[in-house]
Amino acid sequence: MAKMVIVGGGIGGLAAALAVSRRGHRAVVLERADEFAEIGAGIQLAPNGLNALDRLGLGDAVRARAVHIDELRFMDGVTGAHVASMPLTGTYRSRFGNPYVVAHRGELHRLLLDACRRSAAIELRAGSRATGYRQDGSGATVLLDGGGRATGDAVIGADGIRSSIRRQLVGDGEPRVSGITVYRTVIPMERVPEELRWNAVTWWAGPGRHFVHYAIAGGRYLNLAPSVENGVTESFAGVPVDRERVRRTFAALDETPQRLLALGEDWKSWVLVDRDPVDHWTDGRVALLGDAAHPMLHYAAQGACQALEDAVVLGDLLDDDTDAIPGRLEKYNAERRDRTARITHAARESTRLWHPAGAQAKARNAMLSALSGTDLHDHVAWMHGAHESGSAGARR
């Protein structure tokens, strides 16, 4: 039985703790904040994410609380025309083994946190800010602000895009600023006109900008998230922004998205950041997970799904031989590297689909409208299909 010290109490860190505990190991989760909590609003979970949650014993609970989406709907944001939809019922669910759902990020986090609290093999420590790590041939230690330490057989850095563990392990500086700002708010569904309460994740694509919305929290709220390429060069997060500024920024969009944007209040803004993929995110008995390993723009809606996949693969690869941990972590890295890098690049390149104008937008619309539902399912199969480690099936 190994003892894993996990830095970061977000979705990835808690999932990793559950994954290793379900394989018979112990986990200590270190959270820098004074309490375990998750900020944010809507989160999309494709079937691959739900498959990972099934492996963690939480799939049923998430499906019971989430909104099961009927389609991904692509709209021309300037003309208001429906371009294409990817159906997410029937054939899609049969093919990929799970629905496509959306939930409140806080709800998913609470389910993971409650499951960790129920496990005698998991210790949760809030107010524990990691500054770095040390290791030798028999173990690894997290160094804490104030002089404290936490030692185990391995350290997993799941402490986000500005990970202190990554800073020491990879040393690649600050995240890459995308030049895109996203604005977010949620509104009670009763404020949304009935004719606009679509059970779809809907994109309104416009020149250099687009607008996404979908229901969350069991359908009680509508999550609004418009983005714009505005060339911003410095990152910021959670900065309040005036509602009129949001409306002016997206004034080029059609009447229907304008109606929805006008309902938004208490807007906040974030600059989107990610990092270039790296080949190696392990160092002996230390490894990265989730956004600490492979942060990606949210446009592929796979950040949380990939962290959940990381956790399951990591749990599958660990066994009772603590001397083998460095090799197991290298295998975990090797199994996850190419897939997460491909999704990182796909998320970046997606703006070519969302943001064209004029003739390029018309050509995009023609291309998308010619695709059948099966064509669209084929396009996402590599991403939405279940993905586990090569040893997973044999070790269940």
Describe the structure.
The protein has one domain (3-174, 275-388): FAD/NAD(P)-binding domain. It has 14 helices and 20 strands. The two termini are 17 Å apart. Strand 1, helix 1 (11-21) and strand 2 form a beta-alpha-beta unit. It is 35% helix and 27% strand. It is globular. It has helices spanning 11-21, 47-55, 59-65, 91-96, 105-118, 164-169, 243-249, 255-262, 303-317, 325-349, 351-354, 358-369, 373-384, 392-395, and strands at residues 3-7, 26-30, 42-45, 67-68, 71-76, 82-87, 101-104, 122-125, 130-135, 140-144, 149-152, 154-157, 176-188, 200-206, 209-216, 221-229, 239-240, 268-274, 282-283, 286-288. By secondary structure, it is α+β, with helices and mostly antiparallel strands. The strands form four sheets. It has an eight-stranded mixed sheet with strand order 6-5-14-15-16-13-18-17, sandwiched between helices. A six-stranded mixed sheet has the order 8-2-1-12-20-19. The longest helix is centred in the last third of the chain and has 25 residues, at 325-349. The model is unreliable at 390-396 (pLDDT under 50).
Short characterization:
The protein is an alpha+beta fold and 396 residues long. It has 14 helices and 20 strands.
What is the CATH topology classification name? FAD/NAD(P)-binding domain
State the name of the first-level CATH class. Alpha Beta
In percent, how helical is the residue content? 25-40%
CATH superfamily assignment?
A: FAD/NAD(P)-binding domain
Helices, by number, come to 14
Main-sheet strand order equals: 6-5-14-15-16-13-18-17
Shape: globular
Label the structural class.
alpha+beta
Strand fraction equals 25-35%
Q: Largest sheet, if any? A: 8 strands, mixed
